[in-house]
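Inverse folding, one chain.
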């Protein structure tokens, strides 16, 4: 279960890296003014940095077998999921009076990649929690 969690986490991170590349290629770093982007820099950066930190904690658990590292990874992945869900809610298109008129970098995300990233993230969370609990 632990190695499956690692594989799922790496796949999720790879999809996240792809989405980050799309965001960067379409000017995500230049869209820093309030009201231009729905994904502020702190949200994107926080999600990515915490995800990599959690993956590091999970790898530490796999190499050392220390349970605190496993539970640290679990706590971090829950925070990462919260930030990711926030990005998902902010990413959805809006047509109200506060809708953006210009195209933002995140509007270039392929729907299939966003869905796959979220689905693999959910599987990762489940596998990591089960492995930390010691379930077979």
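Residues assigned per position:
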């Amino acid at each position: 279960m632990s190695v499956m969690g690692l594989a799922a986490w790496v796949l999720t991170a790879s999809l996240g890296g792809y989405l980050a590349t799309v965001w960067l290629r379409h000017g995500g770093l230049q869209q820093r003014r309030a009201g231009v982007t729905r994904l502020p820099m702190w949200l994107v950066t926080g999600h990515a940095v915490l995800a990599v930190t959690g993956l590091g904690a999970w790898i530490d658990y796999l190499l050392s077998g220390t349970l605190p590292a496993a539970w640290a990874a679990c706590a971090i992945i829950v925070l990462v999921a919260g930030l990711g869900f926030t990005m998902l809610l902010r990413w959805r298109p809006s047509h109200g009076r506060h809708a953006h008129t210009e195209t933002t970098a995140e509007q270039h995300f392929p729907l299939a990649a966003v869905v796959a990233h979220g689905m693999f993230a959910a599987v990762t969370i489940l596998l990591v929690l089960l492995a930390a609990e010691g379930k077979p």
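The longest helix spans residues 67-91. The chain is about 70% helix and 0% strand.
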